[in-house]
């Protein structure tokens, strides 16, 4: 989705299937759905989230929509501007630096543990995710590929790869912590720094390949260092991209 009104027509049927507007879980379900779409880039940074528009498409009143937006604001995913409404936050430079510092530490910790504890099924999934990066680069080099489709596939590969590492680390609480960071700086935003630049995508794919190799070899120290470096590099690219957008300007991503 590009800038403009948020289109969430698919949410309504799923919410209504789980109960009526009076159900306790309605607002929570709406929060989760919107957060997932923000993370995936279907609702981009800067998009205005109009209560009336959302309520109409979801088939609910404005009350649960208003409460969901308040919760998203508390989570740092949305900003509410007086007399204007709510919109998806564009993270600040400080947000990005701090979040990616934590990402590096957490991913590094997870990578070191994963190198020691990953099982064969998890390793197979990690290997498949890594191959998706290389396939996207190859497709970009040899064919004309739809930008939205490339972004979707890269996002899918990135999500799978890093979530397998977190899962394989054996720390059950790590997923929750990492998801909290994604609410501050949605994972899809790295795409604005990579875009369709084959050289950048190729370098990113190579970083994932080295991380996989360290895990396969059981080298926890190397996996930790590579993942910390990977997070640092991603944060630096994103800071430059956001700085180029500049204050008061709207991003046009995806």
UniProtKB/TrEMBL annotation:
InterPro entries: GntR_C (IPR011711), TF_FadR/GntR_C (IPR008920), Tscrpt_reg_HTH_GntR (IPR000524), WH-like_DNA-bd_sf (IPR036388), WH_DNA-bd_sf (IPR036390). PANTHER family: GLUCONATE OPERON TRANSCRIPTIONAL REPRESSOR, TRANSCRIPTIONAL REGULATOR, GNTR FAMILY. Transmembrane segments: none annotated. Gene3D superfamilies: GntR ligand-binding domain-like, Winged helix-like DNA-binding domain superfamily/Winged helix DNA-binding domain. PROSITE patterns: HTH_GNTR (PS50949). The keyword DNA-binding applies. Keywords: DNA-binding, Transcription, Transcription regulation. Residues 24-91 form the HTH gntR-type domain. Pfam families: FCD, GntR. This is GntR family transcriptional regulator. SMART domains: FCD (SM00895), HTH_GNTR (SM00345).
């Amino acid at each position: 989705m590009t800038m403009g009104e948020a289109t969430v027509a698919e949410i309504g049927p799923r919410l209504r299937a789980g109960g009526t507007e009076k159900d306790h879980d309605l607002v929570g379900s709406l929060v989760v759905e919107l957060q997932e779409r923000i993370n995936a880039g279907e609702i981009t940074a800067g998009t205005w989230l109009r209560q009336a528009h959302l309520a109409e498409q979801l088939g609910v009143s404005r009350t649960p929509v208003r409460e969901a937006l308040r919760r998203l604001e508390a989570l740092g995913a949305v900003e509410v501007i007086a007399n204007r409404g709510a919109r998806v936050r564009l993270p600040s430079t400080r947000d990005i630096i701090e979040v990616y510092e934590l990402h590096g530490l957490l991913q590094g910790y997870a990578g070191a543990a994963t190198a020691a504890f990953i099982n064969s099924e998890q390793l197979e999934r990690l290997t498949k995710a890594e191959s998706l990066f290389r396939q996207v680069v190859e497709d970009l080099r040899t064919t004309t590929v739809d930008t939205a489709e490339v972004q979707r596939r890269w996002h899918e590969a990135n999500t799978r790869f890093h979530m397998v590492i977190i899962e394989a680390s054996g720390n059950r609480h790590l997923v929750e912590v990492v998801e909290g960071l994604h609410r501050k700086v949605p994972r899809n935003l790295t795409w604005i720094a990579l875009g369709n630049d084959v050289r950048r995508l190729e370098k990113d794919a190579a970083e994932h390949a080295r991380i996989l190799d360290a895990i396969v070899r059981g080298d926890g120290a190397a996996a930790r260092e590579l993942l910390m470096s990977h997070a640092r590099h991603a944060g630096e690219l994103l800071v430059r991209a956001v700085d180029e957008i500049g204050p008061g300007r709207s991003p046009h991503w995806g």
